[in-house]
Each structure stands twice: as C-alpha cells, then as structure tokens.
Write a structure and sequence with these properties.
By secondary structure, the protein is of the alpha+beta class. Helix content is about 30%, strand content about 20%.
C-alpha cells in the first residue's frame, strides 16, 4: 500500500492527485515549489517504475511544468529527482524567477523555508483550479 514519506508529509501541503502521482506543495513561500510522488510502494528510482508508469510520470511532470510556467510567470522551470534525503521517488517541479530569493542558484539549502499563510495557499489552489481541469482530483473533493 502506498504511504507518503514522513518528511514529505511534514514539509509539504497536499494539493491532490493525478492518475499516478500525488501532487504536493512544498510549504515554502519563497518559491512556487511542487512535488509529484508516484503512488507506488517502495520505489526510490525512476527505473523501478514499469514502462507505463515511467511514461505517465513524465506526462504528469511535463503537464505540471508547462501549467506552472504559464500560471506563475516563470523565467525558468527546475525539474529534478534527487532523493538524497527522502528516498521515496519524487519529482520536484519548481517555478524560478529572476527576482526570487535564490536566483540563479539552486533552491536547496539556500534560505530557510518561509511557511505559507493559509490565504496564500488558498490563492495558489484557486489558481490551479482554473488550469488543472483534466485528469486531476483536488484534495477534499469527491471522486
């Protein structure tokens, strides 16, 4: 049975689910930083997914990155899977802007996380509701 890594639970806010992946929002208002986690047991590497799941993850990642780039006026999208701290396979999809606090450096370890206020999260979810209209289930909505 799929279980989200405790570190991801601690550091992120649940947005909802694509066909394969759970979508999380990193609780760091410094950047619009999203994480896709394939809902598969004991997978830490991309190559551990079967071919269909690999394609699905890439489709979800690409759709999300393109959607976020337009929605949040990104100058650059950072997409990565690292897993050095959290071994559960997860894909970072981060909106980068030339005026963000860490530009042009990577976001990891640059600045302390600045947690979102509830109103900021509501605004982000409202923006996503306008653009994630196909094949996505927002958390708390009936299936």
């Amino acid at each position: 049975m799929f279980a989200l890594d405790s570190r991801l639970q601690q550091d992120c806010l649940l947005v909802g689910d694509f066909a394969l992946s759970r979508l999380l929002l990193m609780n760091d208002a410094n950047y619009p930083w999203f994480i896709l986690v394939p809902r598969r047991e004991e997978v830490s590497e991309l190559f551990q997914l079967d071919a269909a799941d690999q394609r699905q993850l890439w489709q979800e990642t690409t759709l999300l990155a393109e959607t976020l780039k337009d929605t949040f006026a990104a100058d650059k999208m950072n997409v990565a899977t690292l897993g050095n701290v959290v071994s559960q396979l997860h894909m970072h999809v981060i909106v980068r802007r030339r005026d963000d606090i860490a530009w042009p450096a990577p976001v990891w370890g640059r600045h302390p996380a600045h947690p979102y206020e509830a109103s900021q999260v509501e605004q982000i979810i409202a923006r996503l509701r306008l653009v994630l209209t196909r094949d996505f289930q927002f958390a708390g909505e009936p299936a």
